[in-house]
Amino acid sequence: xxxxxxxxxxxxxxxxxxxxxxxxxxxxxxxxxxxxxxxxxxxxxxxxxxxxxxxxxxxxxxxxxxxxxxxxxxxxxxxxxxxxxxxxxxxxxxxxxxxxxxxxxxxxxxxxxxxxxxxxxxxxxxxxxxxxxxxxxxxxxxxxxxxxxxxxxxxxxxxxxxxxxxxxxxxxxxxxxxxxxxxxxxxxxxxxxxxxxxxxxxxxxxxxxxxxxxxxxxxxxxxxxxxxxxxxxxxxxxxxxxx
Amino acid sequence: xxxxxxxxxxxxxxxxxxxxxxxxxxxxxxxxxxxxxxxxxxxxxxxxxxxxxxxxxxxxxxxxxxxxxxxxxxxxxxxxxxxxxxxxxxxxxxxxxxxxxxxxxxxxxxxxxxxxxxxxxxxxxxxxxxxxxxxxxxxxxxxxxxxxxxxxxxxxxxxxxxxxxxxxxxxxxxxxxxxxxxxxxxxxxxxxxxxxxxxxxxxxxxxxxxxxxxxxxxxxxxxxxxxxxx
Lengths: 243, 230
Prior knowledge:
Chain A is an alpha/beta fold and 243 residues long. In chain A, 39% of the residues lie in helices and 26% in strands.
């Protein structure tokens, strides 16, 4: 697996048409750590991920991967650079089978991978995600919400990313399944040393697994500190995080 | 009974032609949710190119190959030059642009090739086949038509299902955002889709024209009958 890299966003300004959603946001996600990005609806969390992965073009600011600036031209180019963005809403390709979804994940680095390497990546995914192995020939449309979330994360992992961007992975999942997803996020960071940027509305469970936390409000960073320190800050929690 | 057989067999052959036209329309529809009104115009243009080659070289197959190759190129060029600029614009823009493209192609065909209906040769004999004196209602050429469409369709289906290029096309068609986030160059995939649609349209053009005559509007008439109803 290629080495994980740190990810920095420096003064990102981005938006949609006339609306500016990010007013100069800077965050720094250490290599191999989990950085939680928190905040209410409309704080700019999703826009931040979309700007970093190239889904929208930042108007100003820089993105650095492993300390080196990357020119953001398109999402396909960012995926090939090693940024895997898992959008919210368990975005499987419903019309494809589980295995085809995983093979789509491997398109990010097609040239460099041999047939046996790709087979090994599939095996790895099935070992980590047992329920997917049993359903590999089934259409992704037939999966449950939790299985879909597994599949989209597994798909991102088959691209062997240097940074994993997760947008609301717990959204719409039953509490027990949500806990499993958070466990998985923790495991990916601790055991595989993956750099993870975790966007969550559910601040309490995100801070429980994160190393570092950043709080956004109306497109600006209002706090950035150790996850424990953020969780201990009662006033901040009350104001911005709702717990 | 004989009549029943004749109509069934010739119906199958006509169905095959419409299948080729429908497939070319569906390739673009699935990839971009755009009904390409210029499909018939593109097929008409490549068929005219084939006619010119056939008359000049005397070889049917040279014309056949030129038509298919021209279809591939014309499809890709139309997408890059005319459709690409409408990306990220309201969907109606692309529709209007395909109508404009149709008018342009029909106009150019009139200038280059004239508006007189032309007859297009068939690859094989168009004399009806007989079994023990009973006419079957289909000719050797009809058999070729059915075979060509069947082979092309099966080859395409296999490519979509079993190759990684096919998987890229399906992923891009079903969910462009996820495809792009997975590193698939969706814009390139769409160009390939148009090229394939151009190829299929060109095939439809050379196999339908022996029975319809060729004029600048003839393929649009055939295409309207082959349009997917949905």
